[in-house]
Amino acid sequence: MASSIRLRPYDASGGQADEDFLFRLYATAREEEVSAWGWDQTQQQVFLRMQYKAQRQWYAVAYAGAEHRIILENDQPVGRILVRRAKDSIELVDISLLPEHRNRGIGTALVGELIQESRNSGAVVRLQVLRTNHRAIRLYRRLGFVIASEDEIRYQMELKQSRGES
Q1: Which stretches does DSSP call E strand in 10-153?
Q2: Dist. CA 6–CA 161, nearest whole Å
Q3: Which of 68, 72, 107, 151 could anchor a disulfide with 10, C-beta 3.0 to 4.6 Å?
Q4: Which is nearest to 56 in space by CA: 44, 46, 68?
Q5: CA distance 2 to 26
Q6: What is the pLDDT of residues 43-65, one digit of tens each?
């Protein structure tokens, strides 16, 4: 990973800067979808705030204890990564980058670090991806992930590694 990229812990103690950034990040990920509904800007913002809060609360409950990091480039927030580790698995809960920082190798490098960690530990790397997120699906397949199961909305993908595999 480029030396200008680093991770720092998310400030869950009420850091407004992190909350503002994470909402902006969430909104950019849903912008195209929501704008197609024909709502005005106010309606879109209200909906996105509600959805962001629901996601934040769900993550706090469903993934308590997960490592939540802000991705920095040149000390400026550009994304986030949320990873939950167990004895035999590494779950990539969420990785997201601002649009202007996508397709530059940042996500590939971070997922690559999880893959290397799994090679060292023998853990299975798991993730979920929206079926409509073709860009991310292509990336995960290129990195060796396969679809383990699916539902109407998401693919559950995994990459099994044996200890010491390179």
Answers
A1: 67-73, 76-86, 89-97, 124-130, 146-150
A2: 25
A3: 68
A4: 68
A5: 24
A6: 999 999 999 999 999 999 999 99
For residue 31, tell me if it sits in a domain: yes
CATH code of residue 25: 3.40.630.30
Confidence band for 8, pLDDT divided at 50, 70 and 90: very high
Q: Is residue 44 part of a domain?
A: yes
Residue for token pair 């195209």: 32
The one-letter code for the residue type at 64 is A
Q: Comparing C-alpha atoms, which of 146, 149, 125 is closest to residue 137?
A: 146
47 domain-assigned: yes
Give the separation between CA 93 and CA 113, rounded to whole angstroms.
15
Contact 69, 7 (CB under 8 A): yes
How are strands ordered across the β-sheet holding 154-159? 5-9, 67-73, 76-86, 89-97, 124-130, 154-159, 146-150
Q: Which domain holds residue 88?
A: 5-159
Please give the single-letter amino acid code of residue 76: Q
Q: Between the CA of residue 77 and those of 24, 27, 60, 135, what are the distances in Å?
A: 11, 15, 21, 22
